[in-house]
What we know:
The protein has 296 residues and is α/β, with parallel strands linked by helices.
Amino acid sequence: MVKVSVIIPVYNVEPYLKQCMDSVVGQTLKDIEIICVDDGSTDGSLDILREYAAEDNRIQIIEQKNAGAGAARNNGMRHATGKYLSFLDSDDFFEPRMLEKAYDLAEKDQADFVAYKSDQYHTEKKQFVSADWVIHENEIPPYHPFNHRQMTGNVFKVFVGWAWDKLFLKEFVDKYHLTFQEQRTSNDLLFVFSAVVLAKKIIRCTDGSCSSATRCQGFSVKNKRVFLGLFLSCSDGTSGQTQRGGPVRRTGKRLYQLCTAFFTVELQHPVRTDKNKTERQAERRMVQRTRCRRKE
């Protein structure tokens, strides 16, 4: 059986794709499959994928019309046969032993998912910068495995809501029908935070060799305006899935309450004073919706 399915959505990343593919092909864990989903690239990305596939039979190429990274990841998951799922953006790369270390940890404790550290690679400066903020160590218990009930504080501040710094048990993902939202940006938020709440066993990899690197075109992080739009989408999605008996049918209410608390706190501490009329109206609409849900 394939140990890990690595799913890579690819869209117009010709300058960075070879480094990404080399980092996966060269993993010390060899029993993997590499599922590359070309999302309608118009540059030379698909040609590069074909070159690698011709040299390595572990590589599978799926072509689709441009629909975004979320749809590409979902497409890749439908073809995955590995025991675990790993997601990698096509302009990022893995440390050579990352999958092996994460896999061994997951197997040892039968974890639902493993979270590991990541570094940022600044393309312009050509240097790595540690991103210690992606995991709040002080809110994780000193033992493994753990789940969200053993975390201190707000569980949505322990991990960042992206998927590429985590290894997921496919059986766990299938059990709760976890999928990525098919929207253009930050489509992994609901997937990751649902996993955080639903997982019975979470492992944190502390080994420095168990890490990934994300490429930065200059330093940037998601701002609160992005989080606001995602919250409205996430809350609607969670509510709909709960009503339909979807992936969070048993803990959907808990997930929504935690999600609501998180974003409400964030909005009470604004970092921008130049919000335009549309943004202010969106914030008021979110607060009104939160109040209505709480009354229910």
